[in-house]
Structure formats: structure tokens, C-alpha cells
Amino acid sequence: MTYDDIFTKVRSILVEALNVEEDEVTPTSRLKADLNAESIDFLDIVFRLEKQFGLRIPREDLFPESIFQGDPRFVANGQVTAEGLAELQRRMPYADLTSFRENPRLDRIEDLFTVDLIVRYLQSRLATPAQ
Amino acid sequence: MRWTWIDRFLRLEPGRRAIAVKNLSWAEDYFADHFPGYPVMPASLILEGLAQTGGILVGHAHNFQKNVVLAKITAHFQREAHPGEQLTYQAELLDLSEAGARVRGTAHSGQELIAEADIMFAHVGREQLPPELDDPQFVFRGELAHLLRQAESAIPSPPSGTSS
């Protein structure tokens, strides 16, 4: 399945789950800031993705909630440290960290949850045969 | 006090679906104000009954040990419901995980569809509750106990011999 095929399906799911218009959903849309997703919506989206794509998506796999757990190695003065960035990349390998690295404020992590993140995650999962 | 907006549990198929009924009587207080001279069952109370039906279905999946909390609902209504009608609430379990569940609910009067809803429930654990809360298992308690017993007794017995 191509990126565009997956994106089209993901867009329909987001239209249903978040009650948004189709043209509001682009690859760069941030789920919270742009599409107004709340925390329960992330669970709703995961359920719908599992059905649509026939996958099991383990908790914390696509949308990790507690990456740093207040660990001082990862966060200092509200900024994600270099070690934290490495951890973030490890936990969210599908996220594009380019812009985040320029200003790694802890509260900007939620901006990493984009439509593109979902599509890239699914691309990778669908390329791997089911366990 | 807890508002119970189901009159009777008819059927509970664990992990699949639940069916309950609500009878609408003009003697119920809310009809006096909603609306004077034109009694209509408030849509929010139909959803409450549907969510209670679905919530018990979800709660049963973990033996009522987890708090099941209504977190999100998307509903469409076909028409108003009036005194004298009996609403049948059917909840079908779509998804279930440690974090929560998704249920599809419908409300019918006879064969006629009154409302349908997609309902998200969250499982709320002790760590998400305020520490001063006396009873960390606060959902399936008290006045709901009778309804839970009714729900449990509405589980059909397995067919003997041949499959159904």
C-alpha cells in the first residue's frame, strides 16, 4: 500500500473520529493543535486504525504518553536534553524531529503527533509480516 | 444518588452485546418541563440510558473490577420519543482494550430507529483518581448493584447439544 493509499484511509478515520472536514486533514496536521484531538480521541483513533488495517497496535507504540517520566537525564528546565532527544527518536522512530530539535521544549512534544506520523507508522507496520 | 436510566436488562451476551429497555411514562418529572404541553424525552437521557447499557457490557468484560467512564459520544437522532413508548437500547461492543472500549448503540421504539450513537469509554484506574476519593472503585456500586444482578441473570445459558 502506498503512502497516499494509507493517507486516504487515515484521513477518513480522522474525519469520523474527530468530526473534522476532509480538507482540514493534511499530512502535516497536528492532531491536537490543528484537529482538536483530546486524549480519549487517541484511543478512538487507535481502535479505528486497528479495524481498518487489521493490526494490533500496542499501547504506547504509536502515541507514547509517558516517554520521559520526569527523568532528569531526559528533561532539564522544561527542555528536552540531547539524551532525551535520542530517547524520543528511539520511542517515536516515525516522527519527524527536525523542527522539534530547533526548539526542544517539553510541551512541544504533542506537536509530533501528526497525520504523517500515523501514516509512516502504518507503512512500517504493513511492510512487516504479522507476527 | 445515581441516576438509573434503564428499567430492565433483557439480555447480556458477554463481550458482544447488551439489550435493555426504558419505559417512558408521563408521570416522570422531566416531562413536565420538557416541554410543557409537549412531552419529549430529553435526548441526553436517551444517551445516558444507552451509555449505561454499553457501560455494563464493557464493565462485565473485566468482571466489574475496572471503573468504566463515559468519555466521548457521537450521536444521531431520527425522531423524538414520547410518553407511552418503550425504548429498546442495544449496545454492541466494537473494541475493547486495557485503556477503554468503543461501543455502537441504538435506541428503537418497536422497529423504529430513534437514535444511534458511537460511545467511547475509558477505564479509569486508581492512579488517575484524586487521592482523597474514598472508594477507588466508584462506578459499579450501590444503586447499580440491582441492575448488575439483572444483567448477569440476562446472560443466555449456553445451548445444550447443538450449536445455535
Q: At CATH's second level, what is the architecture of the largest domain in chain A?
A: Orthogonal Bundle
Overall mean confidence score, pLDDT of chain B: 91
Q: Could you say how many structural domains of chain A there are in total?
A: 2
Can you identify the CATH superfamily of the largest domain in chain A? ACP-like
What Rg of chain A is obtained from the alpha carbons, in whole angstroms? Answer: 15 Å
- The shape of chain A, in one word, is globular
Query: Measured on Cα atoms, how large is the radius of gyration of chain B?
Result: 17 Å
What's the helix-strand series of chain B? Answer: EEHHEEEEH
Q: Catalogue the unreliable spans of chain A.
A: none
The span between the termini of chain A is 19 Å
What's the CATH architecture of chain B?
Roll
Count of runs of 4 or more consecutive helical residues of chain B: 3
Protein name (chain B): Beta-hydroxyacyl-ACP dehydratase
Keywords (chain B): Lyase
Pfam families (chain B): FabA
GO molecular function, one term (chain B): lyase activity
Can you put this structure into words, describing what you see?
Chain A: One of its GO terms (molecular function) is acyl carrier activity. Chain A: Keywords: Fatty acid biosynthesis, Fatty acid metabolism, Lipid biosynthesis, Lipid metabolism, Phosphopantetheine, Phosphoprotein. Chain A: Residues 4-79 form the Carrier domain. Chain A: This is Acyl carrier protein. Chain A: One of its GO terms (cellular component) is cytosol. Chain B: This is Beta-hydroxyacyl-ACP dehydratase. The complex is a heterodimer of chains A (131) and B (164). With 131 residues, chain A is mainly alpha-helical. Chain A has 2 domains: 1-62 and 113-131, ACP-like (Non-ribosomal Peptide Synthetase Peptidyl Carrier Protein, Chain A, Orthogonal Bundle), CATH 1.10.1200; 64-112, no CATH class. In chain A, 45% of the residues lie in helices and 3% in strands. Chain A has 5 helices and 2 strands; from the N terminus they run ααββααα. In chain A, strands 1-2 form a two-stranded antiparallel ribbon. In chain A, a hairpin with a 2-residue loop joins strand 1 and strand 2. In chain A, helix 1 (3-18) packs across helix 5. Chain A is globular. Chain B has 164 residues and is an alpha+beta fold. Chain B has one domain (8-153): Roll (Thiol Ester Dehydrase, Chain A). Helices cover 20% and strands 35% of the residues of chain B. Chain B is built from 3 helices and 6 strands. Chain B has helices spanning 30-33, 43-61, 144-153; strands at residues 8-13, 17-23, 67-77, 86-96, 100-109, 112-124. A 6-stranded antiparallel beta sheet of chain B has the order 1-2-4-5-6-3. The termini of chain B are far apart. The mean pLDDT of chain B is 91. The A-B interface holds A 19, 38, 40-41, 43-44, 46-47, 50-51, 59 and B 71-72, 74, 94-95, 97-100, 102, 120, 122.
